[in-house]
Amino acid sequence: MNKTSIKLTSASLITALSISMFPGCTNTKPDKTPKDSPSQTAAEIYKRPEIIDSGMAIQLLKEGNKRFVSNKTLSDDTTAEKRKSLVSNGQHPFAIVLTCSDSRVPPETLFDQGLGDLFVIRDAGNVVDPVELGSIEYGAEHLGSPLIVVLGHDKCGAVKATVEGGEAEGNIKEIVEKIKPSLEKVKHSCTDENQLCEACENENIKNSVAQIENDPIIKKLENEKKVRVIGAKYHLDTGLVSFEI
Ligand SMILES: [Zn+2]
Known about the structure:
This protein has a single domain, classed as Beta-carbonic Anhydrase, Chain A (3-Layer(aba) Sandwich). Helices cover 44% and strands 11% of the residues. It has ten helices and five strands. The chain has helices spanning 13-21, 42-45, 54-69, 80-89, 107-110, 130-142, 157-164, 172-186, 193-213, 216-223; strands at 95-99, 118-122, 147-153, 228-234, 241-243. Strands 2-1-3-4-5 form a five-stranded mixed sheet, with helices on both faces. The longest helix has 21 residues, at 193-213. It is globular. Bound molecules: zinc ion (ZN).
């Protein structure tokens, strides 16, 4: 088993297996919703595949986001049993998520995942520096996560502050400096501030993806097809995540 394949212990196998076996078939709702049967654990309702690659990891995130948006979250994959199993068996998160610190963008919630599922790195503006890269390298190389997601979001305050300009206080200017190259790239193609913020958010996601892919360790893993890096964007109003930004 190479590093694209990791063992999973919780939520959502039916979905991943169905999609894997029947590409294009995404109507994989379980017979019972978790809200209908509170006595069942997530692991009892959904069984997961033993092995997962980046494509299956993306499907798990998509299905989890679908549950979140439709208010059918499992959300009970935080049991004492799961907690103890993660201590004795160690963690095998199936995705690394770099996202904004914005309190409205908690990845475990909006992807409906439980303990041990996601390796999360957060900072305002989902920007990348050596500390973030070190965490990402650890998640990919040592924990074997096959997928790295840069998750930006709309109405991002860090991007808005960069677009509005002016002098940022204290270390906030470090974040603004990281987003400025993205602003420079898109500022001549936008006609108003909202459009500019949106374009800058998208470009900032792409910029973080590019920086991660440029990391020698990640580049090597990607060349070996052991890891994949993608951009995604969360929409605050709808709860939906758009993939492949
Ligand atoms: Zn933000």
